[in-house]
Amino acid sequence: MAQTDTPKGVPHSIPALLARNVAQFGSKPAYREKELGIWQNWTWAEAAEEIDAIAYGLLALGVNRGDHVAVIGRNRPALYWSMVAAQKVGAVPVPLYQDAVAEEMAYVLEHCFARFVICGDQEQVDKVIEVQGRVPQIEHIIYQDPRGLRKYDHSKLHALADVQAEGRAAHDRFDKELKTREAELDFDSTCVMLYTSGTTGKPKGVVLSNRNIILTSKASSEFDHLDPHDEVLAYLPMAWVGDFIFSIGQAMWTGFCVNCPESADTTLADLREIGPTYYFAPPRVFETLLTSVMIRMEDAGPLKRRLFHYFLEHAKVVGPRLLDGKNVGAMDRLKYQLGNLLMIGPLKNALGLTRIRVGYTAGEAIGPEIFDFYRALGINLKQLYGQTEASVFITQQPDNEVRPDTVGVPSPGVEIRIDDKGEVYYRSPGVFVEYYKNPESTASTKDPDGWVATGDAGFIEPDTGHLRIIDRAKDVGKMADGSLFAPKYVENKLKFFPNILEAVVFGSGRDYCTAFINIDLTAVGNWAERNNIAYASYQELAGHPKVMDMIQSHVEEVNRSVATDEMLSGCQVHRFLVLHKELDADDGELTRTRKVRRRIIEEKFHDLIDALYSGKTSQYTETEVTYEDGRKGKIKATLEIRDAATVAAGAPAQVAAE
User: Fold this and answer.
1) b/e burial code for range 552-583 (CB count within 10 A of at least 16 → b)
2) pLDDT surpasses 90 at 202
3) In sequence order, what are the beta bridge partners of 423?
4) CA 445 to CA 438: how far, in whole Å?
5) Residue with the larger pLDDT of the pair 551 and 294
6) Whole-angstrom Cα distance, residue 554 to residue 73?
7) Of 3, 138, 517, 600, which has the maximum CB count within 10 A?
8) What are phi and psi for residue 313, nearest 5 degrees?
9) Rounded to whole angstroms, what are the CA distances from 567 to 147, 366, 464, 473, 562?
10) pLDDT-based confidence at 6, cuts 50/70/90?
11) What is the rounded distance in angstroms from the CA atom of residue 108 to the CA atom of residue 499?
């Protein structure tokens, strides 16, 4: 696909979009941040002035064209401004995951050869200082929050406010240089470099151009009719491509307002206060919200519980039909409105979802029950499918064509094909430029015609044109008897239960499937309190016989569901155990976006896998863990292994349930 033409009338860079927004929406709110319990606002004109001050300050510090400027911290307007300021001076912003440990940060900082690092607070500064011996090219560290940093050596450590002050003072000295560098930016200039989660190896630096980000933002915004009056809550990691598209790409294209919560702990409260109209959350967030609702309902009085379930069952039938513009009878509509008045409306308001006009989820498959729950509430929740390498969007679900079992149709400007092995390929204006300093991986992922291999297996429905994803292509395999093995399919079904936080299924090349289970401490802990079950730790609760009974019932219910699919019925879980610890990114078992690192888990817990397949009923194990302060330790446990009932392939669900 040729990418040489610049569409007429489309600003050619993010700074150019900013200038357009100042001209068109100068007095309209562009950013909000809650600080010390108070929402502070910046208009587009005020934000542009702050960005210019940072840009002048970066020039004063000696930032050159092509330099990589690392940005680390939680979602804050000043850090978004810093990324745009870096672009204005011809540098490349490289956001990092703020919860990454120092060693992970060291790899990225070294790989991109960052000379400048902008940090949100002392915690991030400490991590950078810790690895400076390994990454000696870092010349300056800039921080926003000064708390705890007063006695540090400030020879190469600067407050962002001081950098801005110096920038304002140096306005006349650098004005011509800044204008020159900004004028040099074009559609093919690098907009940002984002690192992959590193599911199978070291993270790769994905280079995305202005063309990639702007054309993708334009197409996706027009697809959902986003406009300057929309509001978005920026709470997901800044290093994730989705946040960059939503909070910078689409925000700059449409001119809508980006709202930053006070902290991770206040996100839900801030969500209720802002009431966004455009909202994205991975399935885990929607699952957590639903779990909290169900926990509250269990603690409610009998009458309230009965009313909730009565109106919810009706809403599950009527709500999606109303969203899809289908005919609904007068009595059904009236009953839905009554339920909305008494139960559904207050519930949506309590969750902060009342004003949502467009909601999306992606990253993992979301359970149909969870998906249908939010659609029943009248929330226009849809699914999209994307990758960092695609500037997010590969497919989206159009209004009135929303289903839980597909990820939608190709996004505007995207082409999709399926190869003879079932792997999904795409090409679009959003296709990445390259993997930084990795031409071999670039060539193996993107062919000369611009087609990108997703690594996912799927197929396109011939009658609807919707894409259905089966699993990661590398994870799809064969059982010993030749039947299909698709672990993600089963894992997602297991995670539909609020009591199950994570699941890892094994079985490739084996006679049968087995599984590791992580319980959800919040949901199971609440259940334990209601049932007078005492426990002192996650490990003790996870191994309790009644918890094991509950998890076994969930596994067997999933087996009954899997049995109805003749193609995947061999993936039923025959044996399982509940792990003694939560899988954790700090221990290398998950990526920072909470994707399972199967190879590492197989190596780390090989003794438990061997026990699952050897017929044992228990297994002693010792596991190394990383504490929050970086110290290492060991957890010791003897885990119970249980058999789960399976069902003959093709058995109807209602028969299997009997």
Assistant:
1) bebbbbbbbbbbbeeebbbbbbbbbbbbbebb
2) no
3) 457
4) 11
5) 551
6) 38
7) 517
8) -60, -40
9) 58, 21, 22, 16, 9
10) low
11) 36
What digits encode the pLDDT tens for the residues 547-591? Answer: 999 999 999 999 999 998 878 899 999 999 999 999 998 888 888
Angle between helix axes 171-184 and 77-88 (nearest 10 degrees) is: 70
Q: What is the dihedral of CA 547, 550, 552, 553, to 10 degrees?
A: 180
pLDDT digits (tens, 9 = 90+) for 25-42: 999 999 999 988 899 999
What would the pLDDT profile of 114-149 be if each residue is shown by its tens digit?
Answer: 999 999 999 999 999 999 989 999 999 999 999 999
* Residues in CB range of 192: below 8 A, 6 or more apart: 83, 87, 92, 93, 94, 95, 208, 213, 244, 248
User: In this predicted structure, what is the pLDDT of residue 5?
Assistant: 61
pLDDT tens string 203-214: 999 999 999 999
Q: Which ranges of 26-76 would DSSP assign to H, the alpha helix?
A: 44-61
Predicted local confidence at residue 477, as pLDDT: 82
Are residues 533 and 588 in contact, defined by beta-carbon separation less than 8 angstroms?
no
Residue 286 token pair: 């929607």
User: Could you read off the pLDDT of 447-464 as tens digits, one per residue?
Assistant: 999 999 998 888 999 999
Q: For the packed helices 545-563 and 487-495, what is the interaxial angle rounded to 10 degrees?
A: 130
181's tokens: 């560098």
Residue 528 has pLDDT above 60, yes or no: yes
Contacts of 370 (CB under 8 A, 6+ apart): 283, 286, 287, 290, 496
Residue 589: CB atoms within 10 A of its CB come to 23
Q: Please choose, from the candidates 378, 311, 390, 310, the residue with its C-alpha nearest in 3D space to the C-alpha of residue 349.
A: 378
Residue 655: what residue type? V
List the one residue out of 641, 381, 364, 297 whose CA is nearest residue 502.
364
Give the strand pairing for 434-435 and 205-209. antiparallel
Query: How far is it, in rounded angstroms, from Cα 533 to Cα 429?
Result: 56
Torsional sign, CA 66, 69, 75, 77: negative
Cβ distance 31 to 77 under 8 Å? yes
> What is the rounded (10 degree) CA torsion for 472, 473, 478, 483?
80
The DSSP call for residue 75 is S
Q: Which domains does the chain possess?
A: 14-209+239-248 (3.40.50.12780), 283-354+356-472 (3.40.50.12780), 477-657 (3.30.300.30)
Give me the amino acid identity at 638: T
The answer to whether 262 and 494 are in contact (CB under 8 A) is no
How would you label 471-510 residue by residue, b for 16+ Cβ within 10 Å and e otherwise?
A: bbbebbeebeeeebbbbbbbbbbbbbbbbbbbbbbbbbeb
Of the two residues 212 and 473, the one the predictor is more confident about is 212
Average pLDDT across the chain, whole number? 92
Q: Which residues are registered as beta bridge partners of 518?
A: 502
Kindly indicate the confidence band of residue 523, based on its pLDDT and cuts at 50, 70 and 90: confident
Distances (CA, A) of 334 to 307, 319, 338, 349: 16, 12, 6, 20
Nearest residue to 602 (alpha-carbon basis) of 506, 500, 514 = 506
Question: Are the C-beta atoms of residues 377 and 347 closer than 8 Å to each other?
Answer: yes
pLDDT of residue 467: 95
Residue type at position 337: Q
Q: What secondary structure does DSSP assign to 129-186, as a single string?
A: HHHTTT-TT--EEEES--TT-TTS--SSEEEHHHHHHHHHHTHHHHHHHHHHHHHH--
Give CA–CA dist 94/55, Å, rounded: 16
Asked if residue 200 has pLDDT above 70, the reply is no
Amino acid at 519: I
